[in-house]
């Protein structure tokens, strides 16, 4: 199976919203929700993709020859590549009922772990989503990151207990999910968190805590103040706020603000290829998350489809590193890209 096969297979079963496009750039789905589209006019998802495409890589082959080392470490774990599968929820609503959140996470977590990376898993109003996601992570020796929505504190405590029981190496919260309709008008209240509230949640985790959904230096420093071990520069794929800047536009200033603090910086939003991964690392990210294409990979080939997409990303990243003179992830520097 190759990636073209994965896309062709996915088109047969992925539902009426996602088109399993050869280039997942947000144009065909645009503002279709349900579906993988973005909020409002739908341009934020498109902008995410386009801004990575605007960045060029600087070729330099006047250097020592050798095979690039793509390994990276995060919170004491060594991963084969500096990219992870991002969390997705309600796949049967946004894509098709070929998979449920439970079966999707089981395939994704297993496929990623077998290929040397980790998957972030999603959350939802159905409590079985977190139950099955954390079960899948437990079966993968803790190689996964449960991502908890910013519920009220009692709900968070219940889901955090499940996360810890899975043996996961880190826990995340997509704080920008405060913009999702099903979190609004809940009793007790759910949604945005103050620094004090976030600090309380960080303590509950008792393991490295990742704050996903940071788009400003101010937000990054708040996450650091609350005790986050890492952030994800993310606008939720454009799904929670219309007219956001692209993640590529804000990543450099956020990474610069957190440099030397010990807080890891991850990024997502429109990253689709190994070349994009390279660009994000050059702009200051320690690693990246990729979400929508992994959905296509699961629908198009199950665990084999996941491996196929990971292999594609890995080959593109290694080739770009070699052609730009980087022999390891640590050697990727800002001067290797042209913004």
UniProtKB/TrEMBL annotation:
It catalyses: (S)-lactate + O2 = pyruvate + H2O2. InterPro entries: Aldolase_TIM (IPR013785), Alpha-hydoxy_acid_DH_FMN (IPR012133), FMN-dep_DH (IPR000262), FMN_HAD (IPR037396). GO terms for molecular function: FMN binding; oxidoreductase activity. Its cofactor is FMN. FMN binds at residues 212, 234, 236, 268-272. The active site is at 236 (proton acceptor). Glyoxylate binds at residue 239. Keywords: Flavoprotein, FMN, Oxidoreductase. Residues 37-339 form the FMN hydroxy acid dehydrogenase domain. SUPFAM superfamilies: FMN-linked oxidoreductases (SSF51395). Belongs to the FMN-dependent alpha-hydroxy acid dehydrogenase family. This is L-lactate oxidase. It comes from Faecalibacterium prausnitzii. The gene is hmo.
């Amino acid at each position: 199976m190759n990636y073209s096969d994965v896309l062709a297979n996915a088109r047969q079963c992925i539902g009426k919203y996602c088109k399993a496009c050869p280039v997942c750039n947000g144009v065909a789905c645009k503002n279709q929700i349900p579906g993988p589209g973005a909020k409002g006019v739908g341009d934020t998802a498109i902008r995410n993709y386009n801004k990575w495409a605007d960045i060029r890589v600087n070729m330099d082959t006047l250097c020592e020859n050798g095979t690039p080392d793509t390994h990276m470490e995060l919170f004491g774990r060594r991963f084969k590549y500096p990219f992870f599968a991002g969390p997705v929820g309600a796949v049967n609503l946004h894509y098709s009922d070929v998979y449920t959140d439970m079966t999707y996470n089981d395939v994704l977590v297993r496929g990623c772990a077998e290929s040397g990376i980790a998957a972030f898993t999603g959350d939802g109003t159905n409590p079985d989503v977190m139950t099955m996601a954390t079960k899948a992570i437990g079966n993968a020796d803790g190689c996964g990151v449960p991502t908890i929505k910013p519920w009220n504190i009692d709900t968070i405590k219940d889901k955090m207990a499940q996360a810890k029981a899975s043996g996961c190496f880190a826990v995340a919260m997509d704080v920008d999910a405060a913009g999702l309709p099903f979190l609004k008008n809940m009793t007790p209240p759910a949604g945005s968190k103050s620094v004090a509230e976030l600090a309380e949640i960080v303590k509950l985790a008792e393991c490295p805590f990742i704050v996903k959904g940071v788009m400003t230096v101010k937000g990054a420093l708040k996450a650091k103040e609350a005790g986050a071990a890492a952030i994800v520069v993310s606008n939720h794929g454009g799904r929670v706020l219309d007219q956001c800047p692209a993640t590529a536009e804000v990543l450099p200033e956020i990474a610069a603000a957190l440099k030397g603090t010990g807080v890891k910086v991850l990024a997502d939003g429109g990253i689709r290829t190994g070349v994009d991964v390279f660009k994000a690392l050059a702009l200051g990210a320690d690693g990246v998350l990729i979400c929508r294409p992994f959905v296509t990979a699961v629908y198009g080939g199950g665990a084999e489809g996941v491996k196929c997409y990971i292999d594609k990303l890995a080959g593109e990243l290694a080739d770009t590193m070699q052609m730009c003179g980087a022999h390891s992830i640590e050697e990727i520097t800002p001067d290797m890209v042209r913004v």
